[in-house]
Task: inverse folding
């Protein structure tokens, strides 16, 4: 049995779907109303708990031999939540703590990278048998803008259209995480997980154009426009500040990585962006 935290998030759901083909999965939720959908994805057990409450994590780990810990996105409590999970895992005697971090946690100027670096340090020093996954930005960031891409022919993200990103398919990342959990030889490893191509928004727009058969142009949304949109959507001031900081960093540096480790874990080529867009277009037309 493996316990998955952050289970109802975008990442947690993808992980449950992949892991459940190989292991009984218990999903940690704060709201039991989420149980039905997570069971439909393959979770066999549901545990009610909160990453801020070590006791609830320890109870949730009862009978579980592994933990996949996924902290909430851009959360200021990343270190506390992870040290709580470490304490609970030690008390429960788990045989593997898989920590879902981020690629280049050394990029300390982005707060959640810095916090994940600190959380990694706690885990490495904890005495637990661990595996650290360091995934890059997902291809799935296309999903929320897809309607506008198709309807208006505009691929618009809040950074330069020329900066390059080795985005990865979340389904590949979930398959890689599953390998790490199911195979015996991934303890004490830290794996950077990046996609196979370095793509700018210009490249992405051209690939989408080819797949859907209509012109798509790339556009850099300004940080001011992003701020107006997320404030109108009711995001917290802290989340807004972190989003602006991260996208400012992307605008200046992009996000490059090497796909070798992901290729090794999958035992095949990772999905290309074109593979992802073709799959998405096929799912939508089905
Ligand atoms: N997006 C990317 O490209 C990317 C790339 C690399 C790494 N990551 C990392 O992936 C992780 C997950 O991101 P995501 O976008 O999938 O997250 P998400 O969709 O925001 O999901 C977060 C989940 O955590 C749960 N949660 C929040 N606070 C909790 C608490 N105190 N106790 C228990 N559960 C709690 C939420 O529960 P509720 O449903 O109850 O709100 C939700 O199910 C993040 O650490 C992020 O840094 C993301």
Result:
């Amino acid at each position: 049995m493996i316990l998955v935290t952050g289970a109802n998030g975008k990442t947690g759901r993808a992980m449950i779907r992949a892991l459940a083909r190989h292991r009984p999965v218990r999903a940690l939720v704060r709201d039991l109303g989420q149980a039905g959908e997570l069971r439909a994805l393959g979770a066999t057990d549901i545990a009610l708990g909160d990453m801020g409450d070590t006791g609830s994590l320890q109870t949730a780990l009862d009978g579980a031999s592994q933990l996949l810990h996924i902290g909430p996105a851009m959360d200021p409590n990343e270190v506390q939540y992870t040290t709580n999970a470490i304490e609970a895992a030690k008390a429960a005697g788990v045989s593997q703590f898989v920590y879902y971090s981020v690629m280049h946690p050394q990029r300390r100027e982005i707060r959640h990278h810095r916090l994940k670096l600190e959380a990694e340090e706690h885990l490495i020093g904890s005495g637990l048998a661990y595996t650290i996954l360091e995934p890059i930005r997902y291809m799935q960031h296309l999903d929320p803008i897809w309607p506008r891409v198709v309807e208006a022919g505009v691929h618009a993200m809040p950074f330069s259209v020329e900066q390059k990103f080795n985005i990865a398919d979340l389904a590949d990342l979930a398959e890689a995480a599953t390998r790490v959990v199911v195979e015996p030889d991934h303890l004490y490893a830290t794996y950077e997980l990046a996609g196979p191509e370095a793509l700018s928004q210009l490249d992405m727009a051209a690939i989408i154009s080819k797949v859907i058969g209509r012109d798509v142009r790339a556009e850099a949304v300004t940080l001011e426009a992003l701020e107006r949109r997320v404030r109108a959507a009711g995001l917290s001031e802290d989340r807004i500040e972190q989003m602006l900081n991260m996208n400012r960093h992307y605008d200046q540096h992009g996000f490059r990585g090497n796909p070798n480790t992901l290729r090794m874990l999958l035992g095949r080529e990772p999905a290309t962006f074109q593979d992802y867009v073709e799959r998405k277009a096929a799912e939508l037309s089905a």
